[in-house]
Design goal:
mainly alpha; globular; 2 domains; Growth Hormone, Chain: A; MFS_dom; 80% helix; 19 helices
Length: 465
């Protein structure tokens, strides 16, 4: 059971994250075929990330109520259908719609898989499972652009989406013998009204970031609408008898702090990953395959550093381990910023290695956050953790894109060549990302200390003190 659980978790972590990143290197090919500008191109990524983030909260509650196996089975089928539709799409509208279907399906897949850490594994297995999850997540972040470039150059960009189908098939085979049929009929009903408000707020706020650089009035209007809906959601949560986000979770300092740290990490990394292959093509002059290949170094560094994580947690605690990892990520981003004016790949390698190695040491963030919640809320807690990551990914693409677009526009107005203007905007994005990641490191030291009582797990000999 443990081995099958780990394999299922690994496949799910990889494929759902791969779908976030694989479009990056193929983006120029998609833009040429479908006549998309930079702003429109971002929606190919955001069309997946936003429904993913917006539905995760209600998905976690639904999984607790209806059971993991039905949720995972339906999610896998929808994910596969969305992938097939995306590969066959002939217009931007159809492609974005297919991405929305995949994002909605992933919203049920990811918390269902993450909740298996709490339900199927003991404390030691959870630590290993969280390490596997984060390693596969980071590997997909790094390998996605390279694989996307390879497929788009030699087979066509449609294969960026078709490549998901073997993963879906393998997970469907593993599912019956790994995931129990159990369900909790006493779990709260999903709060559809709150879900609608928070999802609409996220969409408007992200769209505002995309539009502010080139269409300030539209961006301000979207920002205002998103803030109003966000405020309405907060008011509703305070007054509602059945909250979308349980008070036991928001009142848990360690869990709430983990959400905040994860948001800052995602804001710093996701936009950089999305725009790096574009920089490599337009500034360094690389083809799609070589443009995405340097990000594979991030995956290699993650894999190399992962065996050291457990020892670091035992010796220094999860709060110091996560903080140190985020500090190393920030150092890597700054190292890239220092050499970004050079039109060569080699000087970028140390920064990429630091980003990967540091990311490996953020592994305890997930396992520690799940350790401090009760098993009956594992699905909801997993949904919140993943929602914070996906929300930060979407906002990260939009935020770094806004910084990049604004600075690039200023440089173009000053007469700089397009490639140089893009590189200057990318440097500004790196500096913003480093600042956000450092803020996450400082927060981790303060909020990740300690554990909550009464969260014993399968295989634990005693309750957590």
């Amino acid at each position: 059971m443990t081995r099958r659980t780990l394999v299922l978790i690994a496949l799910g972590a990889f494929v759902t994250t791969l779908d976030n990143t694989i479009v990056a290197a193929g983006a120029p090919s998609i833009a040429r075929d479908l006549a998309l500008d930079l702003g429109s191109l971002q929606w190919i990524a955001l069309g997946y990330m936003l429904p993913f983030a917006g539905l995760l909260l209600v998905a976690g509650t639904s999984i607790d109520r209806w059971g993991r196996r039905p949720a995972l089975f339906g999610g896998l089928l929808a994910f596969g259908l969305g992938a097939a539709a995306g590969g066959l799409a002939t217009s931007a509208g159809l492609l974005v719609a297919a991405r929305v279907v995949q994002g909605a399906a992933a919203a049920f897949l990811v918390p269902g898989l993450l909740s298996l850490l709490r339900a199927n594994l003991d404390a030691r297995g959870r630590t290993l499972g969280a390490a596997v999850w984060t390693a596969c997540l980071a590997a997909a972040l790094a390998l996605g652009p390279a694989l996307g470039g390879l497929l788009s150059e030699y087979l066509g960009w449609g294969w960026i989406f078709f490549v998901n189908l073997p993963f879906v098939a393998a997970m469907l085979v593993l599912l019956p013998g790994t995931v129990p049929r159990g369900r909790d009929p006493d779990a709260p009903r999903p709060a559809a009204g709150a879900m609608t408000a928070v999802t609409a707020s996220l969409v408007l706020l992200t769209a505002a970031l995309v539009e502010l650089g080139e269409h300030p009035r539209t961006g301000v209007a979207l920002l205002a609408g998103g803030c109003v809906l966000g405020a309405a959601f907060v008011v509703r949560e305070r007054r509602a008898p059945a909250r979308l986000v349980p008070a036991e979770l928001t009142g848990n300092r360690v869990f709430a702090g983990s959400l905040a740290v994860q948001v800052l990490w995602g804001l710093g990394i996701s936009g950089i990953v999305f725009f790096t292959p574009l920089l490599h093509q337009d500034f360094l002059g690389l083809d799609p395959v070589r443009a995405g290949l340097p990000l594979a170094l991030v995956a290699v560094a993650v894999v190399a550093a992962t065996p050291l994580v457990a020892r670091a947690v035992d010796r220094h605690g999860p709060h110091r381990t996560v903080a140190a990892g985020l500090g190393v990520v920030a150092a890597g981003l700054l190292a890239l910023a220092v050499v970004n004016h050079l039109p060569a790949v080699l000087p970028r390698i140390p920064g990429l290695v630091l980003i990967g190695a540091g990311s490996a040491f953020t592994t305890p963030l997930t396992s520690h956050a799940l350790d401090v919640v009760a098993e009956r809320q594992a699905g909801t807690a997993s949904g919140l953790l993943t929602a914070s990551r996906e929300l930060s990914s979407a906002l990260g693409v939009a935020l770094i894109g806004a910084v990049l677009t604004a600075v690039r526009g200023l440089r173009l107005d000053a007469g700089a060549p397009p490639g140089t203007a893009l590189a200057t905007g990318y440097t500004a994005g790196l500096l913003a990302a480093a600042g956000l990641t450092l803020a996450g490191a400082l927060l981790a030291v303060r909020v990740l200390r300690g554990r909550s009582a009464g969260t014993s797990s399968p295989g634990d000999k005693r309750a957590v003190p």
